[in-house]
Every structure is written in C-alpha cells, then in structure tokens.
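Recap for those who missed Tuesday's class. We walked through two folding examples back to back. For each one, the amino acid string is listed first and its predicted structure tokens come directly after. Nothing is annotated here on purpose, so try labeling regions yourself before you check the end of the notes.
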Amino acid sequence: MVDHPTGHERPMTVDEWLSWGTRMLLELEDAPDREARGLMASILGGVGSVVINGPRPLPPELADLYVERIARRRNREPFHLITGNVPFYGTIFSVCPGVLIPRPETELLIEQIFLRRQGCPPKSILELGGGSGAIICSLLSLFPEARGVAVDIESAPLECMMENRKRLSLENRLSLLAGNWDDAILPGLPFDLIVSNPPYIASGEIMSLMDEVRNYEPHRALDGGEDGLDCYRQILYSDIPYRVASGGLMAMEIGAGQRWAFESSGPFALIEGFGPAEFVSDWAGHDRVVIWERKD
C-alpha cells in the first residue's frame, strides 16, 4: 500500500509528485530519487530518468498511474518490468512478464564476441534461449551482414523477441523458432557463431534470490538444476557444438564459481574439435563468459 496524497486544493505538480514518490521508495532503494524520476519519465514519455517541466501540474489520470507504478515498485516488482523497457548495449529493448530482464553484465558477452570477430564478422548466428532478444538483436546490429536464428520454448519470450525484432527493423534478418534447442535446429546447418545465456543458478539457491528476481522473473530462465549446470550439459553433450562452422565461435555466459566445470578437471573440459575454453571476468572479478573456437 502507498500513502496517496489527498486534500490538496490544486493538482500537485510533477516536482511535488516526485518528492512524494521518492519518500515512498526510501525503504526500497539506495537511489529512490532516481527510480521515482524514472517511473515519472515512463508515464510522461521521457527518456531514462529525465523529467521535463517539473513545475507543471500532473493530470489526475497520470497521477493515478504514477501512484500505481510506485505501489508496484514498493511491492518489489522490477523497475524495468514496470516501465516495459530496459537499456542494453546502447539500445532500448521491450521486456514483459515471463521474460528474463537483460542484465548489464551480459553486455560483456556481446563485447567479447565483437572484439574477437570485428575483423572477420560472422554471417550466421544462433542464439539458444532468446529471452527478450537483446543478445541476438545486439549482435545483428553489430554485424550488419549477418543473419540470425533464436530458439525458445516459451511463448512470452518469442512474443517479446518479435516486438524487439520489429522495433529494430530486423524482420528480414532474424528468424524465431519455437521448441527445444536441439529439436529446432535444422540438421547440417552450420553457424559461424552460437551464443547462449542459459539458466545457471542452482535449484536450491532460487528461493534465496532477491524478491525482484524470485517473485517476478521466470524460474525456467534462472534454474539450472541441482548444480546449475543442466543447460550446459544439454548444449555441450549434444550435437549443437557440431553446428559451429570451422573457425567459428561458441560463447556462453556462466555463473560465478562455475569456471571449474569448463577447465581441465571439469565435465566440459574437452569439446571435440574446439580449442581450450577462454574465460572473461566481469567488473566484479567473477568469471562471466566462456568462449571456444572451432579448430577443425
């Protein structure tokens, strides 16, 4: 519940509503003013947290909408799920319920692929588990000659990817397939790049996640099984690696503490036809990306 301001003889201004919104979010956020401004911008059509014409009165219908969004955020609903969009790698993507919200650390996956392939751009890209489409769409934007395929089993991610594909004018370059990863891949079709950010959180850790994640994001996109490695097994113990063309890359995001599984003593240490795994750490020092190059 939120304390809806009442008893004013005149409509409250945007600035006054911002002060109220900040107070309502004090117990929730390290930067409540930023989120209060961001939610206001989302109803005024602003960009980011920029709010224009703060002294002007806020119309009653927009005031009611602001109260609703503040209440949702106080209930720990993720900010980007409330606004319906999220910035990722320089682009604004739509997000909706049932879709994992793209994280800033996942931008490292895009960055590392680009660093390795800017001189030899991939012509064909496959993403396993497309989610919002942020990864595959960002890669297609970086590699304008490439065509892509994204596979997901759930309807919500497929619908979200369709929206983002349209927003970025990628309809003619990005195909979306519904189904399991291996079932939806055409036999014998090679890709210069296969990329994935699979679920990698151990099942026993899901209930300890922050409320925003545990209560509002799809567990199917988070839960990697008992040890967090189930989806890597599905990918690496299948024919999927053999869909990578000679000289191509396979790149995935991994969880903190999972590097061992891809090193010499781990279950994914040797992948036939590929060189040794390369690891890249995120800004916090956690191994975040693993990349292989096909040698044969």
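Example two. Treat it independently of the first, because the proteins are unrelated.
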Amino acid sequence: MCGIAGVYNLKKQKVDYSLVAKMVGLLAHRGPDDEGFFIKENIGLGHRRLSIIDLSERGHQPMEREGLVIVYNGEIYNYIELRKELEEKGYVFSSATDTEVILFAFKEWGKDCLKKFNGMWAFAIWNKEKKELFCSRDRYGIKPFYYYYNDNVFLFASEIKPLLLFKKEPDKKSIYHYLTAELADFSENTFFKDIKQLEPGRYLILKDSTLKIDKYYELGFNRSLGSFSEKKLRQYSETFLGLLEDSVKLRLRSDVEIGSCLSGGLDSSAIVCLIDKLKKIKQKTFSFYAEAVDEREYIQEIVREKDINFFYVSSSAQEFWKDLEKVVFCQEEPFKSSGIYAQYKVMKLAKKNNIKVLLDGQGADELFGYPEQIGSFLNQSILHARFPLKFNKTILSNYLRFFLPKSAVFYLRKKKIKGLNFLNFSFEKEYKYEEGISRFSRINYQQALFEGITKSGLRRLLKYEDRNSMANSIESRLPFLDYRLVDFVFSLPAVYKIGKLLQREALKSLIPEKVRTRKDKMGFATPEENWLKENKENITNLFKSSDFKSEEYIENKKVLKNIEKINLSELWRFINLELWLRKF
C-alpha cells in the first residue's frame, strides 16, 4: 500500500521537481518507508512506499522496465501465479514484487491485463516511447485515484490534498446532495470543484492532450427472486465458503505481520476464524467498544475458541470531539456518521501494536444486503406470491420506501431531511431539482444490491476505510471483495441472500453458533446520539462562532434555535460540513 502522485504538462513545459515532491510529501503517511521520483521533461511521477511484499530496495518506485515507468498503490494477490505465467513467456524478473508483475503483464497483454488481476489497485504507467499515460483503478474502488484535468495539465494523486495545491473550491452540487440525501461518491464528482475520481472498474488513457476513459469490468447480476431449494442452498454455500477461504488465503500473502478487525459480527468473525484455520498461529485482532454499542459478548465467543491475542479500544464523548477535526482532515470530504471514528480508533490501535496489514469484513453487506433493503425483497416476493411473510413496523416502513413511486420517495426524503428547513434559501433554490437526489425507486432486491455495490454505498465505505487505514500507515485487505466471490454471489437468485442465508449456512462449522445466528448488526458503531448530546455546548459554540463557514449553505440561527428538535443525523451533517470547510 502506498501513495502515488503525478504531473503531466500537456503543453510540453518541463515538470518542476519541487512541485511533484510537495505533492508526494502530502502523502507521507501512506508510505513512510521510502520515497521516489521520475521526472522527465513534461512528465513527473512520485511515490511513497509502505513496504509489504519484498521489503528490499528492489521494490523501490517509480519502477522502470522495458520503456515503461509505473507508480502503483495496492496489492495484486495472485501475483505469484501471474509471475509464473509471464516467466513461461520469457520475462525475467529482478524483484519479488507485484509491481514488476504489473509492468510485465501490461507489456504482454496491454489493458487486458486488468482482467487477470485479483486485488486492489490504483496505478499510472508512463510509456516512454509512445508518450502515453495509462491509469487504472480496481474493480470496486478499494484504492483511490483522483485527478484534475484541463487544457494545460493532468494531475493525479491517491488523495485529494495534493491536488488542492492547484485548485481548492467547494463543489456546491455535491454539498447539496450530502445535506439533503446523505449522498456522496455516486459519480466521478467530489466535494471539490473540477477534482474528479476515476470510477471503479475503469482505465484512463492520456495522449496528445486527449483523455479517454473506458470500462474494463462490469458486474452482472441475476435479476430473479428464484425458488428456494435446500439442495441448492448446500451447493451454493459450499462454493461460497471455498471462494471465501481462497480469498483469505491469497490475502495472507505478506512479508510483514498481519492482523484483523473483529467487530463480533458475522463478516469479521468469518475472516478471523478462516485465518485461524489456515495459518494456525496466534493472530492479533482489534476491536472497538463503547457504552450502548458493546459487542464484547460476541467477540469473546470467538476469542474463547481460537488462538487470538485480542486488543480493545474505547472512547468518550470528550475524546470524540477532540479528535473529530483530525478525522475530518483525514477523510478529506464530509462523511455520513461517527462510525468512521470507531474505525479510525481501531486503526490507530493496530498501528500502536506494529501491524502493517489488517484484514476486514468490508463488502459483505453489499453482497447480501442491509436490513433496510428488506423492503425491496418484500416488494418482489409479494408481487410473485412466493413467501408467507409477516410484517412489523420496521419491515413495513422499509417496504414502502422501495414500493412507492419515485416522486413520492423523493418527496418523503425531502420532508425527512428538511424538517424545519435549515438550508440557506438561495442555496436550496439553486440546487433542489438536481438529478441524483432520489436514488431509491421501485427496484427489486437484486437491483438494490447492485446499486449498493456499484454506486455510493460501497464506494463511500471503501473511501472511509482507505483514509482511516492509510492515515495510520496500514494496508487494509478485504476478502469479501475478491471479484470471483462477488461475481458468484451476484449470479445467484435473491432468495438465497436475504438475511445472509447463504453466508450463515456456509459458516455453520466455522464460527460459534451464537455469532452465526445473531440478527442484530453493529459493525464499527458509536453511541452517536449520546456523544452529540454530551457535546451540546461545543456544538452550540461551533454554530455561534463569528467565523462560521457554512452560512452559504446552512441557516445557523435556525439550527441554534431548534437545537433540541433537530434530527441528529441532520445535525451531524451540519457539524461535519462546518468542520470540513474549516479544514479545507
């Protein structure tokens, strides 16, 4: 895991070394082990290295081979198998890195090499002969790639901060989507005007001032509800467990110590238990707890059965408020909830214990669905009369969310978020009819899952994970996002996914029954409501401040007047936006 940055002057001006060095310097936390540059005429590439595979100097980047120069962030987990394939074709390797594998794979197969990679990546390859820049991002966007492009220059980086050296202006449309519908990362746009992200599953080619972006991967999905069969459930669960186990096995390839996040839920518990099965060594796990969101009861179920050296971290309302600006700066864009802070604390704990690689369960919910997506399943099942389901208030509420016409959903979402209408009138008037506000409409369960993994849901979570881990110089690896596993699960009918039925069946002999059958879910949760109430004075002072930055977007006097009535999720977004504007 690393940090990359680059400058490509399209008008042929020479690149200033000090400029690239400054960009790369802002990424030092992503790669504290080494720094490197390639500067040649109008192209400049920079790299910060976090050494994971082949810790020697042979892994130094930028790496040059046969007229190609690469800067790369990520891991190609099947690099050993690809290396053997390339060696059979006559390629001679001088390092044990996956970086060199990428270079020779690109040399041999061109852009088609992307389909062979099993991993996470963001990289840029400069072809010295063709004067062409080729950039790519992994299938699901685990690794970030941001860029700024105009007639004169193309700039890219692993984070937004280096690009702010050139332009720093809030993107009002993105702010509106965030404030009114909690939307972010559902397109190429960011919270900064003209700074884009290369979307997942895409590559970018830049030559002679012409920029081309295209897809190399598109997730397919089974649209059907299906009919339940015990025999098929057993078959599918065996395949699922085999794929998950192989995914974990690949992600244990490392020349440094590996740890795991453990929340006590189904997903992280499965990973920890598979590591125990595969490695048979005492592993380290890292967990967060707080009052009202304490999962130690379930975590201890795992700890008692496996050979684990476990670590816990907690926090308080006071510490949360003290750290909040740091987390906002780390994340670079406003975020949805304080759960990000719990993950941030876990990453800090892992760093304190000298861990460089952490496995995490991110992505599993996007494969099988969140509780709120039950509505689309009910919609589908009722229309097809497949299941005698009982309704309760929660299910009915979410059912209506997916069953109502798009216009009604849009209206209700607006009513929910607006409340007493805390947005600046001019700001709301300018953007209230922008496309993108209503993401939920009359869609079935499979479509809801597809939207979640290809649009804002997963993208947003992966951004949080990347920033939190890399702020602490840790590489986060996500076994549930092995593309073979994702493709398999999305090929199945919905009936085997609801309530994580398939996953629970597959894990019967692997994890404790108490964990396997639990229905509640916390993940990286915090007592957000209590923390915000305990920080009422700090929040009030924030909105009373003479240098309040959000007045263009929020009516702070209205917020203060109704501080006791305002919905806490709304209040959180207002706080987050204000702190973000102060940091950036």
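Answers for example two:
The domain at 2-145+198-215 is CATH 3.60.20.10 (Glutamine Phosphoribosylpyrophosphate, subunit 1, domain 1).
The first helix runs from residue 17 to 25.
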